[in-house]
């Protein structure tokens, strides 16, 4: 089975592998069964909220970016539970599919809801913790991308002229900053004139949250919890008639083609600074063999930080980014991984957790 033996923890902190300065560290190119991988870690703040993973087997590759908010519990939970659910459902149904992915997301959300209910008496504030969730999978020549929230997957592919490399967005941003998403949310709540409001410089659902889909954020999905007196001790009451955000992922399935060159999976920390085209251009213009620090300098020194300063005062947004190169003419896949909390490995996992 293609998803068998995914997860065998190998290491829990990238800081043990590479050189770091407290804000970023890296691991140079290393071999694995399908090619090479490289890792760098970038962190902005102190809270441990973002997680990510790359898992490979002889016949499949899986990528996850989990951008947490409100605390680390949801993103850590997704990291530990989503891929095992994918494995279980794929085994039961004879392979990966959009339906398998939907079931895995639903099972992860349901398990987190049970965690919130079990923890309610002691920690009611866990109901306000959530995570965006972006996954990608390559198996049997097919590409699967599923997303909740505003992390994004972008494909770099050879254009029609056979020379230029163009960017193709593979995921949908579930953020009410996007007019289409605002209209979608408003249409679902015709009796609530304040379902989306402009406050603190951005559009927010109920004046609270920008993303319309996530794992967790249970207080915005279960009206009985948001109105509970225990929860009100930790936050303002949120009057709800029905859930205002969901855990239903957008899913894309497409066949990989010979002109598909690489995939970029990244949290919103990247896309707030770079367009899809700019990110693709950076990958195209820099050889794979360059060290991870080169990519960090290109991304961060040019777009995030001032005067080559890595201080936390300048790094306002954490960044999680995975670049996955595909090859149709060679047996190997090559990975260049740049990010904040990344797993990598061959039928196993390397993991890291950094402070956001």
Automatic annotation (TrEMBL):
Cofactor: Mg(2+); Mn(2+)
CDD domains: PP2Cc
Keywords: Hydrolase, Magnesium, Manganese, Metal-binding, Protein phosphatase
SMART domains the record matches: PP2Cc
Top-level taxon: Eukaryota
Catalytic function, reaction form: O-phospho-L-threonyl-[protein] + H2O = L-threonyl-[protein] + phosphate; O-phospho-L-seryl-[protein] + H2O = L-seryl-[protein] + phosphate
Positions of the PPM-type phosphatase domain: 36-326
Stored InterPro entries: PP2C, PP2C_BS, PPM-type-like_dom_sf, PPM-type_phosphatase-like_dom
Keyword Hydrolase in annotation: yes
Main enzyme class: hydrolase
Molecular function in Gene Ontology: metal ion binding; protein serine/threonine phosphatase activity
Keyword Manganese appears in the UniProt entry: yes
E.C. numbers: 3.1.3.16
Family listed: Belongs to the PP2C family.
Protein name: protein-serine/threonine phosphatase
Organism: Ananas comosus (Pineapple)
